[in-house]
Structure formats: C-alpha cells, structure tokens
Amino acid sequence: MTKKEARIVNYAFLQELKEENSPLWEDVVLLGAYVQEPFSADWIEQNAGNLLRRLRDRLAGQFRTEEVMGYIPAPGIQQSNEVTVALDQHLRILLHCIALSEQCDDLEYAGYLASETVAIWSQMRMLYDAIMEHESLERRMISTEWSLLQQPQHTMFGFKSLSNT
C-alpha cells in the first residue's frame, strides 16, 4: 500500500477556479432551482438527462483542475481533515453524478423515465445538497486561509516585523 502525498489548500487558485467556471455554476443553480418544490415531472422528463450529462462533464473538469491547482502537494506536512474531506467529496459527488446521469439515460432509453421521475428528482436533490455542502466547506477553507494571511506576521522571537507596522 502506498502512502498518498499530503496536500494543502492553495487558496488563491482555488478561489479563482471557483469564480471562473460560470457554466458549471449556472448548471448548479439550475439543478437547485429544479429540485425545489414543487416537483415537475415534465421538466425531469424533458431536461434532466441533458443537465446531468453537462454537470457530469463540468464537475469532472472542475474537480480535476481543483485537485491539480487548488490542492497542492505538501511533503512533510500533515494533511488537514478538511482537505481530506473535500477531496473525498470530489470523488463521491462525481460518482453520484455519473451514476445518476447513466440511470436517467437508461430509463429514458428503455421508456421508463416517466414512471421514475420522483426517484430521479430525489437523487438530483441529494446531488445538489452534496454539491452545496462541498462548496460550503471549500469556501470556509478559503476564508480561513485568507484570514490567517491577514494576521500580523511575527518574528521567531514573538515581535512584529518592521515591514508590517
């Protein structure tokens, strides 16, 4: 068994990556709008497959880019629990989206989507909630990192650096 290299948040890149992917966030907003009450079977039948396929592809690209640029290797550092949770969420969310997209496509192809719209809607709601939970975690990590950088720097003897006065 090989040990995975610890990673830390590269907050500036992670924040920028989140701000720059408007097509993904537009689809997430659309998903959120359609999983709210009232339930619309017609919308699920007509739009769920396309939305889920787009989300699958866009989430895969976003998460991969985040893992390369937003979470950087940190040899000799212990990876925080928050980073571990966030990276695990990437995998779980993406696998959920892939499975749901394939399920929706299979049901549509077989002609059973109309009878399974409630189940698809329920899974879409769970997917949306997982995405929102993940985004909340990453935004907390970004703001924590940013606030730490804003604190006055100290020398090794506990005095303020002259450059920060």
Give your account of this protein's structure.
With 165 residues, the protein is mainly α. The chain has one domain: Four Helix Bundle (Hemerythrin (Met), subunit A) (Up-down Bundle). The chain has 5 helices and 2 strands. The chain has a two-stranded antiparallel sheet with strand order 1-2. The longest helix is centred in the C-terminal third of the chain and has 34 residues, at 117-150. It starts with 6 loop residues before the first strand and ends in a 15-residue tail after the last helix.
Beta-strand portion reads under 5%
The rounded distance between the terminal residues' Cα atoms is 50 Å
Whole-number count of domains:
1
- Quickly name the level 1 CATH class: Mainly Alpha
Number of helices: 5
The count of DSSP E runs of length 2 or more, i.e. the number of strands, is 2
Radius of gyration, whole Å = 20 Å
Taking all residues together, what is the mean pLDDT?
Answer: 87
Q: Structural class of the helices, strands and pairings?
A: mainly alpha
Q: Report the helical percentage.
A: over 70%
The neighbouring-strand order within the major sheet is: 1-2
Biggest sheet, in brief?
Answer: 2 strands, antiparallel
Which architecture per CATH? Up-down Bundle
Uncertain residue segments: 154-165
Please tell me what the overall shape is: elongated
Produce the secondary structure layout:
Layout: E1 7-9, H1 11-19, H2 22-35, H3 41-70, E2 71-73, H4 81-110, H5 117-150
Antiparallel strand pairs: 1-2
Helix pairs in contact: 1-3, 1-5, 2-3, 2-5, 3-4, 3-5, 4-5
